[in-house]
Write a structure and sequence with these properties.
The structure holds two protein chains of two kinds. Chain A is an alpha+beta fold. Chain A is built from eight helices and 18 strands. In chain A, strands 4, 5, 6, 12 and 13 form a five-stranded antiparallel β-sheet that branches. In chain A, strands 7, 8, 9, 10 and 11 form a five-stranded antiparallel β-sheet that branches. Classes of the chains: A alpha+beta, B mainly alpha.
């Protein structure tokens, strides 16, 4: 095209300057991280983080609008720098996406550079901050003067700005506390994931009942020599039902009878029992080249011993099915006297006084007999802002989709 | 089940091969166009019928394991090829698409999937189907975009001009990006309901974010008067990130704590 090659830093700046700038920023971020001896970015809480974010937003919009003709500001809010910062965020995320994040030996180079907690490290924070500045400046140009033609751009970019900035600035305010509560008991303490020191909650939880529903029993052939079930990789767990015929190498098993809730008496005879105490018994007919036999087997429970059927060197056994649903019937009482009766279940959290309560887990060793329910109490005051951003992105995307199709119509 | 997977897969692949073979003669004998299309289309119908019967057998949508998502992929990607031919009169894409679909079926034939009916409680959510379907369709479009881009690159190397092909790969990428965004946000909204937080930098989330960034970068580069020819390389290669996100994450060292590893099969 006959354009004279532009020297380094000679205006108008473009990709070369943008990549240099980005590289320096990331490098500086790692230096900071190292200088802070591996400590991440300081955590700011409400209202300080909201004030800082508000000032930052004003600053970015102000710079964009006041200096919109300045060549450096134009470059700072332009696509080349935006693209380079996207690449930098992608590369840093790649580190977090490939290497396990979490505790490592303190003092190792890994920890000093923050590679084990990349998403709360200085280089990531700096890059995201610069990216927000770049995005914010380009947004200011489309916001003023306002035009409906720009609505798709504004929705998508402002939505991304809001979701990203509020998600990151608001992260320290997220509270996640595990509340372990026993059946028939009440508790108002929660534990943060990494700590054993309980924190007082502004409400108490009383657990009336915990129930666990399971998928059908699973049958397996167990080899005590290798210490685990013999199972072909491609074979699904064998789900037990009456009439089931399953076979493993040379061992054929048929389910003759199935008692979902039963208990043996003193003489070992089986009697139907109620749901809370009874355990499953299965009558199996096992056929091998050596002959065949019939036997009752059971999963066992904390009160009844497990019973497997021995076949030569191996055992045929059953175990409880995987959990299908578990729920806690609770009464939540606020310090202000507010009270709520509810059932907590996975995927069905409840709202209480600005907190969300989740069914998280139970005593997995005890399974169906668990007396313990683990409830997670979560408070995230920034959530509405992040969701506003999400919905703006989706609205912008719908318009993008629509305009894309319309352009196609024009193109053809 | 009405028919087993091996029969269905072989029947579908037979239909696609026969349809493709017939299509080669369409230029000489235009009357063959409809039978060729119907035969290829029948392959996709076989897959759709198989998925439907598989769904009813499992009592849950077959969207849980990677093998199950490959079934959908095999059913849907030839459709993109047919639609592109109908819309832009580009005939070659459907061969790539049917080839890719057959490739996924062959993977499934070699690694029989676990016919596990159980669905852990966190997956029992109204978000399950929209989240996975939006991603599936997004991946299908982006795969087609990438295939088109590879074709465009090969034409470039032979110095043939091909503006039409470049606009096809672009629009497929654009639509794919829109669906990726929806998939990402649906996933976040679901995660809030099921796991308590919308974003935890779980490795799968990180990789989904990375693939989203890759296409976000593409769209901005496209806007910024970068040579369209060079961008075909970018589109062709972006799909690799998506493949890592889709299949590769489970094998990375970071995956040990992922909530998405239930898809390993």
């Amino acid at each position: 095209m006959g354009i004279v090659r532009r020297g380094w830093l000679q205006p108008p700046w473009e990709f070369r300057e943008a990549s240099l700038f980005t590289a320096i920023a990331v490098f500086f971020g790692f230096i900071l991280q190292y200088a802070a001896s591996g400590q991440g970015v300081p955590r700011l809480y409400l209202p300080v983080n909201a004030i800082v974010l508000g000032l930052f937003a004003l600053l970015v919009l102000g710079i964009g609008l006041v200096f919109r003709e300045n060549t450096t500001v134009k470059w700072f809010g332009g696509i080349p720098l935006g693209l380079c910062l996207i690449v930098a965020i992608a590369v840093l995320s790649l580190i977090g996406g490939v290497f396990p994040q979490g505790e490592v030996k303190p003092g190792s180079i890994w920890a000093l550079l923050g590679l084990n907690q990349i998403f709360s490290s200085w280089p990531f924070a700096l890059t995201v901050l610069l990216f927000l500045a770049n995005l914010g400046i380009s947004l200011s140009w489309k916001l003023v003067p306002f035009s409906f033609k720009n609505i798709q751009f504004i929705l998508f970019h402002a939505g991304f700005w809001i979701a990203l900035s509020c998600g990151i600035f608001g992260a320290p305010d997220l509270q996640r506390l595990v509340v372990p509560v026993d059946e028939g008991k009440e508790i108002n303490l929660g534990y943060a994931m990494e700590s054993n020191i309980p924190q007082k909650l502004p409400f108490s939880i009383f657990l009336k009942d915990f129930t666990l529903e399971e998928y059908p029993l699973q049958m397996f052939l167990y080899d005590p020599q290798i210490g685990q079930p013999i199972q072909e990789r491609s074979k699904a767990p064998v789900l037990v039902h009456k009439g089931l015929k399953a076979s493993w190498d040379g061992v054929d098993v048929e389910v003759l009878d199935l008692l979902p809730f039963a208990l043996p008496d003193k003489d070992g005879r089986l009697h139907p029992a109620d749901k809370t105490a009874g355990i499953p018994f299965v009558k199996v007919k096992i056929t091998t080249p050596a002959g065949s036999k019939e036997e009752w087997i059971t999963t066992g429970s904390p009160f009844v011993e497990t019973r497997d059927a021995q076949v030569g060197d191996v055992y045929v056994g059953i175990r409880p099915g995987t959990p299908k649903a578990f729920r806690s019937v609770v009464t939540v009482k606020g310090d202000n006297g507010q009270q709520l009766n509810a059932t907590l279940e996975v995927n069905h959290p409840i709202d209480f006084g600005g907190w969300k309560l989740y069914q998280m887990g139970y005593d997995e060793k005890a399974g169906r007999w668990s007396q313990l329910s683990l409830i997670e109490a979560i408070r995230d005051p920034w959530l509405p802002a992040v969701y506003l951003g999400f919905f703006m992105i989706m609205a912008g995307n719908l318009l993008f989709f629509w305009n894309g199709i319309k352009q196609k119509e024009v193109a053809s | 089940m009405i028919f087993d997977f091996t029969t269905a897969a072989l029947a579908a692949m037979a239909c696609w091969s026969a349809g493709s073979l017939l299509s080669f003669f369409v230029r000489k004998t235009p009357a063959l166009k409809l039978p060729a299309f119907l035969l290829s289309f029948a392959g996709t119908l076989v897959m759709v019928a198989f998925i439907a019967s598989y769904w009813s057998m499992l009592d849950r949508p077959p969207l849980r394991t990677l093998g199950e998502t490959r079934l959908w992929y095999a059913a849907l990607i030839p459709l993109v090829g047919f639609l592109v031919e109908y819309r832009w009169k580009i005939a070659w894409l459907k061969y790539y698409c049917m080839g890719l679909a057959s490739f996924f079926l062959v993977i499934n034939l070699n690694h029989p999937d676990v016919f596990d009916k159980t669905l852990m409680p966190a997956l029992q959510s109204p978000w399950f189907i929209p989240h996975v379907v939006v991603y599936l369709v997004g991946y299908v479009l982006l795969a087609a975009s990438s295939v088109t881009a590879v074709h465009n690159v090969s034409l470039q190397l032979r110095s043939k001009s091909n503006a039409n092909g470049e606009s096809v790969s672009h629009y497929l990428a654009l639509l794919g990006f829109v669906l990726l965004s929806f998939g990402l946000i649906f996933g976040a909204l679901w995660a809030k309901e099921a796991w308590g937080h919308y974003w935890t930098w779980d490795p799968k989330e990180t990789w989904a974010f990375l693939s989203w960034l890759a296409y976000l970068g593409y769209l901005h580069a496209y806007r910024y008067k970068i040579e369209k020819g060079k961008l075909q390389w970018y589109l062709a290669l972006s799909f690799i990130v998506l493949l890592v996100c889709w299949f590769g994450v489970n094998y990375l060292p970071s995956a040990q704590n992922s909530v998405h590893t239930y898809t390993q099969s």
